[in-house]
């Protein structure tokens, strides 16, 4: 089966180059936009398998007007009733703005010309466009006309148009322009094209300057040579036509030699970065001296399409030249054009394709990310100096925002993408700027998803993977370890039980972490010491949960500004080993991220984020209810039990104090105590939420400001061993004035050593819990007595007062 020839020259002849001396176009540059004519509704429409309905033409027409076209070829009115009635509808509907010229096409036939004029009756501004084919093939084969007969045909019908335009101008006040196309110009001897156009111009006889110019439209009806050949033809025509100043030279290129891609939206295998020779031919021919371009949006048209005006206009725009067309909302234009034409815009169509502002390749993404970062710095500097903010981003000739596209789509991820692009997406969407090593680590996770799913990874995939991997973003993403509350102290408060170690305390400042974390849903109170908050938490994890990790890398940055600013911390942890050097060189590591309004908090959260990865689903030591006699773990176990049974977070020194109580209570059972018994022991010892039959009990009280308002007068009724007594006292606040009142009943002095409070429960169930440690100094005794009390109430003041009295109950207070 013979197909392609080995020697195609025996079948196809090359174009004949023009002998143009000193051609000028190759050294010219663009300085302004051409006059644009959209022929979407005529040439474009003729090329559609299903030509547009009148309704679709109207929608399309409105879009063209909105884009800013001032010359629109709306129809071939003599060809069909649809076209004729569409044109009538434009004038009857008053749809033509005063500055828009409506163009209609007619062949050189008198009946069709008359019908065309009937269609435009009543318009203000009309371009009558007449054509006849001039190339040798058409003259000799189609029409059997000589050159002279071909000229006669054009001249004869130009006369008819001249006469009719005079009549319609008189009757309707219409202003006319005349456009003549030597159809098949690119295949016609250029000398003959000039000859026939000069004859038409002479016949028209009305060509002047400005809006009076005659339009000679020079179609590359079929592209037969490379773009430079068309440019040569145009430059020849421009320099040989007479009265050049009275002529608009118009280009009408098609794309026969270079439509670059199939219109198949699902084939992503085509990698050509141009939309065809129509663009090149137009640009070169425009440099050759043309004034005007006829084309279609996105290059629709016969065979391989007309030249793409969007592409041409945006090429000028990216050269800093105003195109005089507005494609600010390109997507809605695409939507209208594709629905009217029923043809898709290729995903890689210049400027308009959905993949055009998208980078999949890692090196491209990296360059774009760096480009954006450098540009924002450059723009800030330029803005400060009042200079223009010039666009310069690698791989991006235009700012997508100018076309109404968001940056979101700029970087997309598939198996070809790199860490830079993923880091960029995390930064754009989560405001997190990962350190470089962490980018590599997270990249592997995304690669895994991409390989597993064998598809493009979406922005949502990436942000979800990030949150899941680093346990970030609320309860949904929480890991096994969750920070509930914490306190960092610079100098650990004196601990009555470890006072023997006082002398060994290092003089340099150390940090202590005291906190409550949820471990597999159970609240645990842990603490640890270190050079800083992070090492103190790591110490606590090691001591209480057997999670032995070492910090290898730490960095942080702020997110946002001013009052809403937050800190983001990034932590890399490795498993602790016996040798410090070996530990730091470990190949396995875990990254964590933490965000908090407090910088220490963000670091601590980052530690737990990384620790959550490190522990996987390995079992952790459970909360021990067998209270041993190890001071450090024993106190924490007791505190854990109370947190879990009563939701109370005991102050550190209270933990130590209660631990002593527990130790005494369990002395005979070898330190073992049941969970329920421990809770009961706490409640009976401190009077927490049990019946109120105590030595001192609060029956009622009121507090009033006195003096300048800085003092309080407490007056109330206290039951002392069941006997109600009225008391009053003054103090700085509720608690001190209550103590003053109490002093009217007792000898010696009570003072508050420590006070803490927190809320328990939620919503309407919420109540305040107060912890008070009272000191009692008996008359004539040097040694002070101390006791803790716990109070709770919906009113925070009442809760504090109850705690004071509960503590007083536990002291051997002597009455008066
Ligand atoms: Zn055409």
TrEMBL record:
Residues 490-500 have a biased composition (Polar residues). Pfam families: HMGL-like (PF00682), IPMS_D2 (PF22615), LeuA_dimer (PF08502). Gene3D superfamilies: 3.30.160.270, Aldolase class I. One of its GO terms (molecular function) is 2-isopropylmalate synthase activity. It catalyses: 3-methyl-2-oxobutanoate + acetyl-CoA + H2O = (2S)-2-isopropylmalate + CoA + H(+). InterPro entries: 2-isopropylmalate_synth_dimer, AIPM/Hcit_synth_CS, Aldolase_TIM, LeuA-like_post-cat, LeuA_allosteric_dom_sf, LeuA_N_DRE-TIM, PYR_CT. GO terms for cellular component: mitochondrion. Keywords: Amino-acid biosynthesis, Branched-chain amino acid biosynthesis, Transferase. Belongs to the alpha-IPM synthase/homocitrate synthase family. LeuA type 2 subfamily. SUPFAM superfamilies: 2-isopropylmalate synthase LeuA, allosteric (dimerisation) domain (SSF110921), Aldolase (SSF51569), post-HMGL domain-like (SSF89000). PROSITE patterns: AIPM_HOMOCIT_SYNTH_1, AIPM_HOMOCIT_SYNTH_2. Residues 456-615, 689-812 form the 2-isopropylmalate synthase LeuA allosteric (dimerisation) domain. It is an enzyme of class 2 (transferase). It comes from Serpula lacrymans var. lacrymans (strain S7.3). SMART domains: LeuA_dimer. The keyword Amino-acid biosynthesis applies. This is 2-isopropylmalate synthase. One of its GO terms (biological process) is L-leucine biosynthetic process.
């Amino acid at each position: 089966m013979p197909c392609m020839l080995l020697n195609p020259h025996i079948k196809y002849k090359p174009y004949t180059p023009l002998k143009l001396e000193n051609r000028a176009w190759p050294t010219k540059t663009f300085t302004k936009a051409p006059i644009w004519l959209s022929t979407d509704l005529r040439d474009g429409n003729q090329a559609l398998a299903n030509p547009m309905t009148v309704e679709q033409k109207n929608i399309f027409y409105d879009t063209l007007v909105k884009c800013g076209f001032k010359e629109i070829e709306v129809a071939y009115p003599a060809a069909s009733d649809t076209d004729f009635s569409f044109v009538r509808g434009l004038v009857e509907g008053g749809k033509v703005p005063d500055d828009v010229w409506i163009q209609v096409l007619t062949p050189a036939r008198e009946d069709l010309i008359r019908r065309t004029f009937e269609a435009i009756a009543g318009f203000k501004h009309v371009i009558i466009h007449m054509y006849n084919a001039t190339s040798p093939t058409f003259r000799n084969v189609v029409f059997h006309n000589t050159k002279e007969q071909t000229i006669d045909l054009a001249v004869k019908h130009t006369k008819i148009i001249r006469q009719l335009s005079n009549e319609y101008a008189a009757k309707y006040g219409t202003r006319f322009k005349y456009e003549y196309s030597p159809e098949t110009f690119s295949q016609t001897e250029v000398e003959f094209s000039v000859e026939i156009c000069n004859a038409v111009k002479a016949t028209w006889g009305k060509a002047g300057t400005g809006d009076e110019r005659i339009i000679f439209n020079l179609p590359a009806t079929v592209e037969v040579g490379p773009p430079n050949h068309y440019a040569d033809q145009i430059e020849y025509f421009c320099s040989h036509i007479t009265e050049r100043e009275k002529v608009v030279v118009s280009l009408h290129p098609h794309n026969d030699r270079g439509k670059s891609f199939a219109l198949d939206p699902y084939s992503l295998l085509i990698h050509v970065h141009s939309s065809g020779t129509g663009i090149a031919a137009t640009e070169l021919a425009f440099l050759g001296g043309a004034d005007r371009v006829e084309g279609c949006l996105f290059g629709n048209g016969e065979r391989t399409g007309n030249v793409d005006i969007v592409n041409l206009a945006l090429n000028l725009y990216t050269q800093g030249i105003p195109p005089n067309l507005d494609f600010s909302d390109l997507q809605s234009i695409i939507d209208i054009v594709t629905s009217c034409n029923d043809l898709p815009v290729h995903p890689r169509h210049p400027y308009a394709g959905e993949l055009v502002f998208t980078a999949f390749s890692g090196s491209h993404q990296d360059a774009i990310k760096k480009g954006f970062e450098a540009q924002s710095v450059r723009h800030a500097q330029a803005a400060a100096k009042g200079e223009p903010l010039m666009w310069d981003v690698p791989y991006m000739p235009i700012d997508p925002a100018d076309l109404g596209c968001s940056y979101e789509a700029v970087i997309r991820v598939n198996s070809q993408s790199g860490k830079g692009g993923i880091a960029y997406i995390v930064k754009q969407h989560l405001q997190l700027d990962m350190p470089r090593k962490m980018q590599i680590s997270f990249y592997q996770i995304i690669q895994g998803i991409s390989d597993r799913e064998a598809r493009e990874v979406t922005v949502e995939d990436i942000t979800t993977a990030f949150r899941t991997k680093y346990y970030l973003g609320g309860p949904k993403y929480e890991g096994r370890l969750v920070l509930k509350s914490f306190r960092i102290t610079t100098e650990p408060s004196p601990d009555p039980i470890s006072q023997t170690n006082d002398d060994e305390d290092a003089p340099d400042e150390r940090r202590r972490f005291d906190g409550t974390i949820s471990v597999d849903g159970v609240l645990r109170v842990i603490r640890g010491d270190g050079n800083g908050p992070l090492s103190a938490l790591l110490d606590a994890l090691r001591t209480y949960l057997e999670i032995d990790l070492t910090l290898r890398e730490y960095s942080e940055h702020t997110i946002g500004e001013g009052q809403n600013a937050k800190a983001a911390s990034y932590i890399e942890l490795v498993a602790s080993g016996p040798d410090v050097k070996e530990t730091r060189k470990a190949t396995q590591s875990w990254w964590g991220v933490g965000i908090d309004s407090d910088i220490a908090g963000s670091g601590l959260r980052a530690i737990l984020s990384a620790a959550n990865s490190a522990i996987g689903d390995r079992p952790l030591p459970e909360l021990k209810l067998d209270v041993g006699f190890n001071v450090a773990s024993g106190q924490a176990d007791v505190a854990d039990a109370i947190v879990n049974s009563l939701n109370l977070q005991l102050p550190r020194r209270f933990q130590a104090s209660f631990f002593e109580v527990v130790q005494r209570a369990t002395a005979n059972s070898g330190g073992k105590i049941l969970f329920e018994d421990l809770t009961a022991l706490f409640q009976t010892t401190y009077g927490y939420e049990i019946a109120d039959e105590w030595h001192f009990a609060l029956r009622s009280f009121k507090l009033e400001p006195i003096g300048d308002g800085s003092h309080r007068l407490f007056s109330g009724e206290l039951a002392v061993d069941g006997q109600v007594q009225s008391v009053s006292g003054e103090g700085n606040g509720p608690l001190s004035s209550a103590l003053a009142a109490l002093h009217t009943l007792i000898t010696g002095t009570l003072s508050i050593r420590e006070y803490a409070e927190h809320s328990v429960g939620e919503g309407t169930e919420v109540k305040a819990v107060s912890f008070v440690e009272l000191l009692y100094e008996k008359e004539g005794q040097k040694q002070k007595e101390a006791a803790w009390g716990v109070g709770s109430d919906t009113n925070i003041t009442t809760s504090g007062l109850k705690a004071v009295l509960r503590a007083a109950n536990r002291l051997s207070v002597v009455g008066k």
